[in-house]
Amino acid sequence: xSAPRRKADVTTPLPEGPGASGRAVVLVPxxxxxxxxxxxxxxxxxxxxxxxxxxxxxxGLAAAIDLDVVASGIVLLQEIRPSTYxxxxxxxxxxxxxxxxxxxxxxxxxxxxxxxxxxLEKAWSCKVLDRTGLILEIxxxxxxxxxxxxxxxxxxxxxxxxxxxxSWTHLERQRGxxxxxxxxxxxxxxxxxxxxxxxxxxxxxxxxQVKRTRGLHRKSRKAVxxxxxxxxxxxxxxxxxxxxxxxxxxxxxxxxxxxxxDPTLRSIELPHGAKVILSDxxxxxxxxxxALVAAFRATLEEVLEADVILHVRDISHGDTEAQASxxxxxxxxxxxxxxxxxxxxxxxNKVDELDEEARARMAEVTRRTPAARRPLLxxxxxGEGVDDLLAAVEARIAAGRTLLSVTVSPSDGEGLHWLYExxxxxxxxxxxxxxxxxxxxxxxxxxxxxxRRFPAAAE
Length: 459
Prior knowledge:
alpha/beta, Rossmann fold, 4 domains, 14 helices, 13 strands, 41% helix, elongated
């Protein structure tokens, strides 16, 4: 194990959550490639994160819920122990650290089984939170809208239900036959499982209504010819800062993990006047709990429906390749191919944080990349490269659309209004006879409707 790091106490106490005092120890188990198990990573051959980078991220996750990380370290493993995940020697070592630091919470950056979690809690005499539980806790703090709160609760209950196993002795006691919680002979674990199941069913029904409402909003947006541009990327890659730069709005943008949870939509104008809807989405992270991906699928449908996807990367981060691989894996799970250059643009953000040598190297990499797949160097903080980004978005949108010229007679005011509502008007000329000549850009699904209404329309 690397030497535990010490930090000064944070004066702000943990207002809520698993630790009463907020004093926490963070440990990162790292399985050697030669150990009896698969290396951590989103796929075979994918870039994997260094143990040091994982430790930095885990400490950042703990800080995201105001935990005071008083010690942290990396535990090298040759194999995963079924009972405690890490070996007995390391369990005893960390028990001493927990006592010495008076920690009331240990964060283990791994997916612990209920048995492993229970055994570690017994050994350390404190609460233990694994990576999934920590991310759920963060999401619970960040959710602001009713939909976001429901999605987080659904994910948390689904995870909690999987924890109700016979090893939890406090759930073994028998209940009597009073109230709606069960009849004679029903154990507490069975009652808890049933109550959780009922709540999950209720939330799923509410989210179905949210999904229908979102679908209606999406349908109404499709009636207006505004393409959708979605921002995706690893958490803390700078998506919200870029969103604010492009939209001139004030969405929360902070140097913290999962600063944005609930999606935000704004309209922006491209260089030649066309409008698009820009969507800021929740940040992705490695080993994102499956329950969270499922719960937020309704929100992430904005990504599925997007005409253009901007994959924002923190190019100054040491593990940017591994982060990009994690994002690609989650997009694939959603049914989006991150390699589709017709739809996905890589945005290499935070170039302002690179030194001159690194900037020159990145510029050379982009120059040698074929134009169709060329990433864009951008600084959301300073605005560098933003004009090129908007031009690239406009080019992607234009590539799949038809250019038409239409002349509208002076008496067809309704038709003129229809064109403005259902197409992109790129140019207008008012003729001497009162007619109006328009240059239009039309999505493929609407070209036939324009041709029916205006048979003289020409490409």
